[in-house]
């Protein structure tokens, strides 16, 4: 199973690849603090039987290095022992807003995760 996540400050969007061509958004993880969020993420990955984790990583922009450091630190806290792939998430939120307009709703974050995971699958296939 391949799971994609979009790491945010309030929520972590989650998407699951049901096949190499079908990706669906899943229930987002609410983030109270990073340790709780990392633990909840690991629990979700185990429940879904994930073998690969695809993580959205912003490329470009003035904060690229800082965001990459923070995201990779958080992923390290998860303690996932499968494959970890970092996928460019540029404009995934813009694309998600075309599908789901309420960015305050956690489903929005999972739609962004779905877009990130679809991008990865296009690269792999």
TrEMBL record:
InterPro entries: RNaseH-like_sf, YqgF, YqgF/RNaseH-like_dom, YqgF/RNaseH-like_dom_sf. Residues 1-96 form the YqgF/RNase H-like domain. It is an enzyme of class 3 (hydrolase). Belongs to the YqgF HJR family. GO terms for cellular component: cytosol. Keywords: Cytoplasm, Hydrolase, Nuclease, Ribosome biogenesis. Its EC number is 3.1.-.-. It comes from Campylobacter iguaniorum. Its main location: cytoplasm. Gene3D superfamilies: YqgF/RNase H-like domain. NCBIfam families: PRK00109.2-2. Pfam families: RuvX. Could be a nuclease involved in processing of the 5'-end of pre-16S rRNA. GO terms for molecular function: hydrolase activity, acting on ester bonds; nuclease activity. It is found in: Cytoplasm. One of its GO terms (biological process) is rRNA 5'-end processing. This is Putative pre-16S rRNA nuclease.
């Amino acid at each position: 199973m391949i799971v994609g996540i979009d790491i945010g400050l309030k929520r972590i969007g989650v998407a699951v690849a049901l096949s190499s061509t079908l990706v669906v958004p899943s229930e987002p993880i609410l983030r109270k603090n990073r340790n709780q969020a990392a633990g909840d993420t690991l629990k979700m990955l185990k429940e879904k039987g994930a073998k690969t984790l695809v993580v959205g990583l912003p490329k470009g922009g003035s904060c690229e290095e800082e965001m990459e450091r923070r995201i990779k630190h958080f992923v390290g806290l998860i303690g996932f022992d499968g494959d970890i792939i970092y996928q460019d998430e540029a404009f995934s939120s813009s694309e998600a807003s075309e599908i789901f307009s309420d960015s305050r709703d956690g489903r929005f974050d999972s739609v962004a995760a779905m877009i990130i995971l679809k991008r990865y699958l296009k690269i792999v296939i």
